[in-house]
Amino acid sequence: MQPTPPIATLPVARRKAQPKFIIGGVLFAAALVLLMATAFTSTAQYFYTVDELLAHRAELGTRSVRATGAVVGDTITVNPETLEIRFEMAHLPDEREVTDLAAALHAAVVDPNAARVMVVYVGPKPDLLKNEAQAIVSGRFAADGVFYADELLLKCPSHYEEAAAGTPAPHTLTGAATPAP
């Protein structure tokens, strides 16, 4: 019987990568990149101020966009049967230009020359929908010139100002919970 040579002395067979695996890997990577690019562009929404929204209305057509503005309180109407909410949204400068959001919201609402757009949203009335709240809407323009929102988000700066000043904002729990005896 002949002894087996040590493993270190055995010749290592070099395997050549087969072209079909290389081509398959490249095609898989290309498909993955294409899928990610398509998903990103189809879900991207553009963010507009009311001035920009009105200036680009014709270009936007029925494309879904996101816009922001100040809620004009005396224009809010709610139909309790259909849950349709209508309100005007006044132009609010870009957030990067605003240092005091509450003052900017107030100025936008009281300025009779501020650009405004009528917004219609169908759904339950949010608690924060009131005068001088910041509205962020996602939706599209219709032929009647009204902006129909699919989504309505609201920010009320008074909640944040109270919290920043050290006063607990509404709906904030304070203190530690005590166990029941």
Describe this structure in words.
With 181 residues, the chain is an alpha/beta fold. It has a domain at 47-164: Nucleic acid-binding proteins (OB fold (Dihydrolipoamide Acetyltransferase, E2P), Beta Barrel). Helix content is 29%, strand content 27%. It is built from five helices and six strands. It has helices at residues 19-43, 50-55, 57-60, 101-110, 157-164; strands at residues 47-49, 65-79, 84-90, 116-122, 134-141, 147-155. Strands 2-3-4-6-5 form a five-stranded mixed barrel. The longest helix is centred in the N-terminal third of the chain and has 25 residues, at 19-43.
Q: Briefly note the CATH topology name of the domain at 47-164.
A: OB fold (Dihydrolipoamide Acetyltransferase, E2P)
In the CATH hierarchy, what is the architecture of the domain at 47-164 at level 2?
A: Beta Barrel
Distance between the termini: 84 Å
The average pLDDT score comes to 79
Main beta sheet: 5 strands, mixed, barrel
Count of alpha and pi helical runs: 5
Work out the radius of gyration: 29 Å
Poorly predicted parts: 162-181
Element-level helix/strand string: HEHHEEHEEEH
> Quick one: overall form?
elongated
Give the fraction of residues assigned to helices. Answer: 25-40%
CATH superfamily of the domain at 47-164: Nucleic acid-binding proteins
Number of strands: 6
CATH class membership of the domain at 47-164: Mainly Beta
Structural class label:
alpha/beta
Output the strand order for the largest sheet: 2-3-4-6-5
Which percent range describes the beta-strand content? 25-35%
